[in-house]
Amino acid sequence: MSYLNNYRINFWGGISTNPCTANNDDVNDYYVDPVKAMLSPCLISKTDEDAVKVLESNPGWNYFGDYVTKFSNAKISSFGEPNAPETAGGIIGQGVYMLGSLNPINTTPNPKGSPILVDMDSTGTSCTQILVGGLQIGGTNSPILRINEDTRCYTRSLQTVDADGDGAFQMKSVNIDPPGFGMANTSWQLSFKYSADWVYDADNAQISALVEKAKAAKGITMVFTQFEVMTIFSREAILQEYADKKGTMNPVLGYTIGSIGIWEEDESDTCLPGRLLKGLSTMGDPSMLSLCDTYAQLDETTKILSLNMASTFIKPAPRAKREDLSSMSPSVDPGPIAIAVDVAGTAEIVASIPYDPTNYYLYGGMVDILLTADQITKIKSGDLLIVQTETNGTIIKNNVSKEQTYRFISDNRGEYIDPNSTNELEFNITKWGQPVTEDLTLDIVFSDSGQLSAQFDQYTEMNVGFSTSDGTKIPFSVLNAANHSYTGSTTVKASDAAAFKLNAEWVQAGLKQVSLIVRGASNANYYMVMRTYCDDDYSGIPDDQKFTWDFVYKEVLRYYYIVFPAMSTHLPLNNEKLISKQVYGAVLERVSDEYKNTTLLMPMTRDMSPGKTKLLTDYLNYINPKEPG
Amino acid sequence: MKNTIAVLFCAAALYSCGDVSSDSQVEEVTDEKEKVQLSDEVKSALPDVAPVGATNLTQADFDEYAWLMFVAMNWPASETERGMPDLLKQIGDPGAVVWQSLRTSESVFQANGADPGNWNAGWDTRGGYKMAFKSSDISKVSAVAAEHLKSIDQAVGGSLNDQDGNYTYYQKFMNKTEYTYVHDKKYYDKSILNAETSDLILPNQSMEVKSSWKIMTAKDTQSEFFTTPAIVEQPDGTSLDTIVGLVGLHITMKTPGAPQWVWATFEHKNNVPGDPGSTATSFSYNNPDCDTCTDNQAMPISVPTQVTRYTPIEPDAVAANSKWQGLLTGTVFENYQLITMQWPSDPNDPGNPGGSPTPNISANTTMETYIQRVSNCMTCHNSAGTTNGIIKTDYSFLFLEAQSSK
After folding, report:
1. Is the dihedral of CA B384, B387, B391, B393 positive or negative?
2. In Å, how far from its chain's centre is CA B248?
3. In what order do the strands lie in the sheet with A510-518?
C-alpha cells in the first residue's frame, strides 16, 4: 500500500527553478573547481574585477540565479479514493505551495525564504535535489493545510529526449531555442511526518479526509513531475541582458502534475513507491519522442491496480509561450493500450488501460484499473508491460514500457560525505514489487557524475570505498580507464534484501556516480551521486596568518562572490568591513549546524567543506570576541 | 508651470502597489481601496487624486508610482506638523519638504534607549530649518561590533567623495505610520526589541526615506540642486555651517500588495555621465577627463571618487523621467531622475516570500556605489534583523540603531 492505493488529492500547474549556472561544465568547465569550491588556476590570479569580467563574458544561461524553486499557479484539480476521482469540492482550485524553512532560532511562524534546487554535481545532469521547509495548500490568508518541516527530494525517473534520433538521450530540446531542456522530465517525492503542529481546516472535507488518514499512517507524501522545462530567455537573449549589465535572472519554467496522498510507515521518504516500468524509447515511432517511467501498485483488497502515468507519455507539442503555463496541451495519444505481463519472454495482455491523453493531468496522471482475481494472479507472475494494442485490444502492437524486475528503493540518492567519515546506506530491493526470494550478486560501478575538464584529473579515482554491514571491504578494479570507471561486487542474501546495507567511506575529495546493478538482470539498477568534501585543514597555519581577511576571502568567500552573484545580493561577500565586522553574526548563524538541514544554509550550493566552514567561523569569532561575561 | 503641474498632478492616475495580489490575480482597484494604500502623509500631499483601476501592472506603472511618491514627498512641508504638506505652497517653493519633516533615525533611536517622545516633537520650522549631519557613531550591529555606521558611511561600507574631495553625507527617516509602531511597541529601546522572538511585521504604509548630500561649493550651480542649510561634522571633528545639495534619494514603502515594500531611488541628473538625455559636461562624482582613475573604488578623504553607473537606466524609467521632468520644469526637481523602481512581481506567494524583486538589480550611484553589480534593495533588506540576530525586522535596517536602556 502507498499513496497510489489510497486517498489522493491531485494538482497541476507550473514549477519554476532558478539555479545559478556559472559553475556548470557546459559554460565554464575550466573556470571553477566544483569539488574544492574554488576558482580554478586560470582565474585565481586575476583580480576580482577581471575574474567577474571573464564570467560575465561566459556566464551560462543563468549567472544571476538564486536557486529559488517554487510551484507557479499549481492548483488542486481532483481528489478521491482510487477509481473514484471527484472534481467538485471545496478544495478544488486551491493553490499548492512548497515552502522554505522556518528560522530555526526564533518563533516566527512564516518562512523567510523559498525552497531551493541545488545540484549535487554542477557539471552533471543525473541528480539534483530540492530542499524544502514545508507544504501549504490554500493561499496566504486562508491556508487549509500548512506543514513546516525541513526535508528534501531528489531527481527520480529522469528522462531526456533523443533529440537527434540517434539514440543518444541528452538534455537538449528539439523544439526550443538553446539552451533548451524542453524534453527533460523528472519526478520528485516529498514526505512529511504527521505532527500535531500541522495546521489545517477541519471544516474542509477533503483536507480532513487526508489528515485523518495521515494520522493513522506515517504522514503524507507528495509526488510530482517536472517536465517541458525551458528558460524564460533564450541563450541569445539572456546574453544580451548580461551585456546590458542588467543582472537578469533566467529561471526555468515547466509544468508539474502531482498527487498528495498517504505516506505509510514502511515507505521511503523520497523514492516513488510501486513497481517501476521503464519507458522503451519511441515505441518504434520516431515522432513520438521520449517515453518516461510509470509506477504501478496493486491493492489486493480493493482489487484496484493504480498507475502513476503522469510521465508515461510526453507532450509532443510544447507550449507556444515560454512563460505561459495556464493551459496544458495533450500528451501523445498512444491509441489503445493495455497492461500486460511478461512471463518467461511471453507477453500476455491482462487489462486495457483507460488512459486519457487530453485530461490525464487533471487527475495527477493517475489511472486505476479494477481487476479480477485471475488478472491479479497474472500480474504477480512476471514483469509488467504497458503495450499498444490493436483496436480490438487483444493483440499487442508495441511494447511501451517494461518493468524493472528488481527495484532498489532508497533515500540515499545524493550523498554528502565529510572527510574521514562513513555514511551508512540502506536499500529495499524488491522483485515484481514483492520481497526478493533468492540471493543476488550486486555489481557496484563508479563513473564520473559529470564532465570535469582534464585539469581536474585528481578527482578521477574512486572517492569512496565500500564495505558491507559487517565491515568487510569490497575490492574494486578498473572497469574502463578511459572513462574513469571502476567496479566491485558483493552478495545480497535474500533475507537481507529488504534492508540491505552498505557503508560508504570517504577516500578523497570528489564527485562520482555510483550505480548498483543486479547481475544478470537486464535493466535493474540504481544510482547515487556522492560528493566527498575536501579535507581542508588549516590547523597548521598560525593564527596571525589564517585569521586575516585576505586569507579567509581567498580560501572561502571569493569563489562565492565571483561565481554566484545572487549570494552577494543578500550580503556583498567581498566587503571586508561588512562581513568581518558588521554582519558577522548573521554569517555565523547561516553556516552553523542549526541551519544545516534548512533552506537557509550558507552557502546555498552546499559545497563548502567542513574545513572551510571552520576557518570562516573561527575567523569571525577571532576578530569579534564575545563580550566578557 | 507650477500650476500646470498641480493640475496635472490632481488628474494623474495613481497606481497602487497595494493591488498586486499575485502574478495572475490582479484585482480591480476601487476608489475606496485606493484611498487606504497611501499613508496619511502621502495622501495629504496628493490633493484629491482621482485614482483609476489598474490591472496587469507593469514596470511603467511602478515607475509612475515612484514619481508620484517623489512629488508627494518633495512637496513643501508644513512648518509645524511633521509629515504633512503645506498645500498653500507649490512644489519647488523654498523651505523644507515633507520627507525632511519625518523622524530621522537618530531622533528615534536615542542614547540609552530613551523615549523619543511624540511624533511631532521638535518640528517647528517657522524660524528656519537646518539639517545636521553627525559623524558620531551609530550602532550598526552590536555593542561589541568593531565597526559602526556613520553619516558618511554607505550602508554596505565605504564613504564616497565628490569631485571636490568632500564626503557625501547620508540621513535616514521613517514616517508616522512606522514611528507610531516603533513608539507603541517601545522598540526604540534595544533591550525590549532584542527580547522579541518572532519577526517584526511593520504596518502597511510604513515608509522610509534615505537621502544623500554633497557640500555645495563654488563649482556647483546651486540653483540646480535641492539645497538645505546644514551643520556638517567634518573629519577633524569640527563643525561646518554650510549648504548641502541633494544628490540621491531612496523612498521605500510597505503596501498591502507589496509586503516586500516598493523601492524607488532617484538621483541628481549630473551625478555621473552617460545617462540618457544627459548633456552635462561636468559631474558631481565623475571626472570625464581622468584617464587614470579607477571606477567605483573608495578613496581616502580629499581624493575624488570616480563613479560610473554600472547598469544603465531602463527605457521605462527614462520615459517616466521625461514626462515628470517636463511637468516639473521651472522647479529644482526637474534636475532629478528616477533610476529604478524595484517592486515584487510575485508578492503573495507563500513559497516565494522574497517576492521576486523586479528588476533584479537596483543601485543608486551615491548610496550603493561599490556594490552596483549585485545591489538588490529587496533581497538585501530582507536580511535586516536585530543586533542579536534573533529576529528579522521586516526589511528595515533602522532597528540596528536601537540602543539599550539597560
Report:
1. negative
2. 8
3. A414-417, A525-532, A510-518, A440-448, A485-492, A476-480
By CA distance, what is B374's nearest residue in A?
A569
A533 DSSP β-pair partners: none
pLDDT digits (tens, 9 = 90+) for A335-377: 999 999 999 999 999 999 999 999 999 999 999 999 999 999 9
B147–A582 CB contact, under 8 Å:
yes
Q: What percent of chain B has pLDDT over 70?
A: 82
According to DSSP, the residues that pair with B385 across neighbouring strands are: B392
Distance CA B391, CA B139 (A): 17
Going by pLDDT thresholds of 50, 70 and 90, the confidence category of residue A203 is: very high
Which distant-in-sequence residues (6+ apart) come within 8 Å of A482 by Cβ? none
Q: What is the Cα B279 distance to its own chain's centre?
A: 26
Q: Do residues A278 and A402 lie in contact, with contact meaning Cβ atoms separated by under 8 Å?
A: yes
Which H/E stretch holds residue A502? Answer: strand A500-506
Cα separation, B313 vs B391, whole angstroms: 35
Q: pLDDT tens for residues A44-86?
A: 999 999 999 888 888 778 899 999 999 999 999 999 999 999 9
Cβ neighbours of B348 in A, within 8 Å? 139-140
Q: Does A100 touch chain B (CB under 8 A)?
A: yes
Instruction: Sort strands A485-492 and A185-193 into parallel, antiparallel or unpaired.
Output: unpaired
Alpha-carbon distance of A527 to A509, in angstroms, equals 19
3-state SS, residue B130: coil
Distance CA A270, CA B140 (A): 44
> Are residues B349 and A70, on separate chains, in Cβ contact within 8 Å?
yes
| Spatial CA neighbour of A410 closest among A442, A437, A388, A382 | A442
Q: Which range, of A13-17, A205-209, A556-560, B131-135, averages the lowest pLDDT? A: B131-135
Cα nearest neighbour of A73 on chain B: B24
B244 — pLDDT class (breaks 50, 70, 90): very high
Does the reported pTM lie above 0.95?
no
Report the pLDDT value the prediction gives residue A283, as an integer from 0 to 100. 57
At residue B212, the pLDDT reads 95
Long-range contacts of A586-592 (CB under 8 A, 24+ apart): A586/B383, A586/B385, A586/B389, A587/A616, A587/A620, A588/A617, A588/A620, A588/A621, A589/A105, A589/B389, A591/A616, A591/A617, A592/A617
Whether the CB of A327 is below 8 Å from some CB of chain B: the reply is no
**Cα distances (Å, whole numbers) of residue B151 to B116, B135, B172, B231:** 20, 5, 9, 12
Give the separation between CA B326 and CA B322, rounded to whole angstroms.
6
| Residue A533 distance to chain B (closest CA, Å) | 29
Identify the residue whose cell numbers are 490591472: B55
What is the ipTM for the molecules in this complex? 0.91
